[in-house]
Amino acid sequence: GERLPKPERGKMRVHKINNVNKALDFIASKGVKLVSIGAEEIVDGNAKMTLGMIWTIILRFAIQDISVEETSAKEGLLLWCQRKTAPYKNVNVQNFHISWKDGLAFNALIHRHRPELIEYDKLRKDDPVTNLNNAFEVAEKYLDIPKMLDAEDIVNTARPDEKAIMTYVSSFYHAFSGAQKAETAANRICKVLAVNQENEHLMEDYEKLASDVSRPAAPSPAGSGTPLPPKTAVPPLPGPQDINNGWQHLEQAEKGYEEWLLNEIRRLERLDHLAEKFRQKASIHEAWTEGKEAMLKQKDYETATLSDIKALIRKHEAFESDLAAHQDRVEQIAAIAQELNELDYYDSPSVNARCQKICDQWDVLGSLTHSRREALEKTEKQLETIDELHLEYAKRAAPFNNWMESAMEDLQDMFIVHTIEEIEGLIAAHDQFKSTLPDADKEREAILGIQREAQRIADFNSIKLSGNNPYTSVTPQIINSKWERVQQLVPKRDHALLDEQSKQQSNEHLRRQFASQANIVGPWIQTKME
């Protein structure tokens, strides 16, 4: 391992903080981002910070380097597990928590690479504790993988800790990946040796056949009386140099053919990898887009309040961020489809059709997202205008409502007068009140006009208002009802005042008549008394 700076020997808090900082600096130098993790929190025993730092270190040094078919560390490790455990019954690895609860996946990984260590067929799915302990003990004893997990904790937890299982499974990956590479290299060497041995046998057979052809025929026995057949012209036999040249041409042709085969194998492997990668990314994208069009087409903003529309806008902004993040996946899907076409993939038509469908749907989502953004912003603007109108209505309706209530009280107020002057004063005050009614009616129309304008904006933009002004309980119906009541009380007050005026005038006439008669009778009575 690499050397760390020499630690300080003191036991004071400052020494501990300095030592932890040295370790954190070393970790940061390896490209590990320690966000919001400080030496003080670790020295003070902050368990959450310490566990977070430990997981970051594990992720960087044990998991991040794992890569299967250009996937991320977590996805690559999951894909590796899925491929290794695919042939095993009762094993379906889909995640790093629930899929491992019964312990069969751990045993399947070990059996796939070291079948002599595990009797997989004897394992039972309904005995998870035994399965887990078996895998942990075998891994610790024969694979040098320490026991990091507890079987009872995994079984008794509804959802086992994902990070702990990822860390433990990564140990299997590192333990088996080296052995797999060595086995692959050994297999390749064996294949090369077999080819060389076959070539040597062919060379020996060729040399033997060439020597048999070049050997002269046996002479005819003397005195046999049998005439010898005419000599056949034998073509000149190839010499050693010709054989050597021919062999070199054969080797070159063989080498060229081998290179072509290797290139073709690489191309087919590349095609298989790209096709699988295309299917995986396309499936993930299609699962993400499911239901998105319906969500973007809904018109929930038509019945929303101003606070609701602001929440919808924030939610839409979050979706736009998510949409932008998926842009890279769509581009990758298109790039993979293009490469499959360039490499003459046999199923290019279906790949192109699926890619085109994804791209078309992506364009539709982009258009719907833009349209919904415009609709939300437009509705927000209209609701803000309506909200301002509601506020103005409330500010003017409240005092006008109070004025009408006071007017109704005054118009229904009982009056007691004894003179013409008093009733004439009341009539004058009433006439003054009636002179203010035209202005009051204009104010009423203005207030109702504010409400009508708010309703007009809502109707024009297909906005369904709740019907209640959030700033006041005084509705247009209340204003009109009280105004009609005022209009009814005014003539009644007129009649009452006029009747009282006639009554006071009659009383005044009687008082004057009485006074006149009293002035005549008074002196006469005085005379009689004297």
TrEMBL record:
Residues 216-226 have a biased composition (Low complexity). It holds the Pfam family Spectrin. Residues 1-62, 71-177 form the Calponin-homology (CH) domain. InterPro entries: Actinin_actin-bd_CS, CH_dom, CH_dom_sf, Spectrin/alpha-actinin, Spectrin_repeat. It comes from the Eukaryota. Residues 211-235 are annotated as: Disordered. SMART domains: CH, SPEC. GO terms for molecular function: actin binding. PROSITE patterns: ACTININ_2, CH. Keywords: Actin-binding, Coiled coil, Repeat. Residues 309-343 form a coiled coil. This is ACTN4 protein. It comes from Ibidorhyncha struthersii.
